[in-house]
Design goal:
single chain; alpha+beta; five-stranded mixed sheet; binds histidyl-adenosine monophosphate
């Protein structure tokens, strides 16, 4: 017997590694973004945006960065190679270059872009994430990095986290540059070496050694690099590089500014931080959870030479990216997630269909006064209305009933106190 044709149910999950945001998740996301935005406002940063789709060549750089292998890219209908941005910094550089000399420096800009990376998924790493970016163009020296780290710690404090929960490891690429310079490693290999060094903790040493050898570096150089990477204090660094070395001076300045801001307890010097992106040139930093169970919370640093790689004139620059995934995991672990249950101001309900027009008038007046109002749009019983009002977290139920309405009044129940009163329309709006 022929079976009736049943259409196969469509896959309802979003693509692997991506997220749907139902209203309850959206409330949490908005709460987080509000804190990103409010922190940026406190530091007088202006918001910008750019398309999520960019030319692929904006992101394909020469060095073997992990991020380049993770790009989502395709050919558009016009045959152009395009990509979903894996990070915001190249787009920001493009925007800054577009404005050229007309831009009043310093630029202090922020954004909350969605970024796409075909990552191997672990806790806190997805294939799309939102990334709060704050960047400063036009300031040389550690004052800009110090200001950015003040924003990071201000943000974390607002969420209820302290230096006992989150640490920020700080170093400078100039540390490695200094050591390599003494070992006779030329500058043209610097970016590639940084990327390999960043992998030291994640990839077996013999693999790194092979890649280093391909760059012309011997095992003795790797030994020196590993020894330098294990430095944990500025005093030790000073012993190795000398008090006058640029890296030492910049880092000392940063730590002394941190004391002025009052966030020095969050910071620690750690020479093993080099960051996996090729373009960093100076101070680099990464925030981590002190429980050591999560991936990096945020990361950034100085990239003074990015603009010239796009054919422009360099402007000193630094910034950071702060993802929306790891921080929520950390807040969960610490019991610091906010209460995001829904709430509205008024639930307006017509007793019967004869009051429907009156109810629209009441709802319109309340909305005009800035209150959030759900108006019942169908015929419903009182019991249903109260149940729903409760579920929506309404502060008041406003009933439009025939007798009261004839007197120009409505019946109002305060759901917190249970108190019921009759109010005139004009008294309702406060
Ligand atoms: P990044 O270290 O690649 O830096 O990413 C910054 C932050 O974005 C990470 O610390 C993490 O919070 C978040 N993140 C990165 N990938 C993922 C992922 N797959 N899933 C969830 N979260 C992720 C940059 O992107 C630089 N462009 C930051 C920057 C801005 N440097 C200067 N200005």
């Amino acid at each position: 017997m022929a079976r009736p044709h049943v259409r196969k149910r469509m896959e309802l999950s979003p693509p692997r590694g991506t997220r749907d945001f139902f209203p309850e998740e959206m409330r949490l996301r908005n709460w987080l973004f509000d804190h990103f935005r409010e922190t940026a406002r406190l530091f007088a940063f202006e918001e910008y945006d750019a398309p999520v789709l960019e030319s692929l060549d904006l992101f394909t750089r020469k060095a073997g960065e992990e991020i380049v292998g993770q790009i989502y890219h395709f050919e558009d209908k016009g045959g152009r190679a395009v990509a979903l941005r894996p990070e915001m910094t190249p787009s920001l550089a493009r925007l800054v270059l577009q404005k050229g000399g007309s831009l009043a420096l310093p630029v202090r800009w922020f954004s909350i872009p969605q970024c796409w990376r075909y990552e191997r998924m672990t806790r806190g790493r997805k294939r799309e994430h939102y990334q709060w970016n704050m960047d400063i163009f036009g300031v040389e020296g550690a004052t800009a990095e110090a200001e950015l780290l003040a924003a990071v710690t201000t943000f974390l404090s607002r969420l209820g986290l302290g230096p006992e929960d989150v640490g920020i490891k700080v170093s400078s690429r100039k540390v490695l540059q200094g050591v390599l310079g003494r070992l006779g490693v030329t500058d043209d290999r610097f970016e590639a070496v940084c990327i390999l060094v960043d992998k030291l903790e994640k990839v077996p040493r013999d693999v790194i050694e092979k890649d280093m050898a391909a760059l012309g570096l011997g095992a003795d150089v790797i030994d020196r690099i590993v020894a330098t990477m294990s430095l944990q204090s500025l005093d030790e660094l000073q012993d190795v590089l000398g008090a006058d070395h640029e890296a030492v001076r910049e880092l000392q300045e940063l730590f002394s500014l941190a004391q002025g801001y009052g966030y020095e307890r969050w910071l620690q010097f750690d020479a093993s931080v080099v960051r996996g992106l090729a373009y960093y040139t100076g101070i680099v930093f990464e925030a981590f959870d002190r429980g050591a169970t999560l991936r990096a919370i945020c990361g950034g640093g100085r990239y003074d030479r990015l603009l010239s790689t796009f054919g422009g004139t360099d402007v000193p620059a630094c910034g950071f990216g702060f993802g929306d995934v790891v921080i929520v995991e950390l807040l969960k672990d610490k019991g610091l997630l906010p209460d995001t249950t829904r709430s509205i101001d008024d639930f307006v309900f017509a007793f019967d269909s004869a009051q429907r027009t009156a109810a629209t008038q009441v709802a319109a007046a309340l909305r005009g006064a800035g209150r959030s109002v759900e108006l019942v749009l169908e015929e419903r019983k009182v019991k249903w209305a109260f149940k729903r009002a409760d579920r929506l977290g309404a502060a008041r139920v406003v009933m439009v009933a025939p007798e009261e309405w004839q007197r120009g009044e409505v019946r109002v129940k305060d759901l917190a106190t249970g108190e019921e009163t009759n109010l005139k329309l004009e008294d309702l709006e406060q």
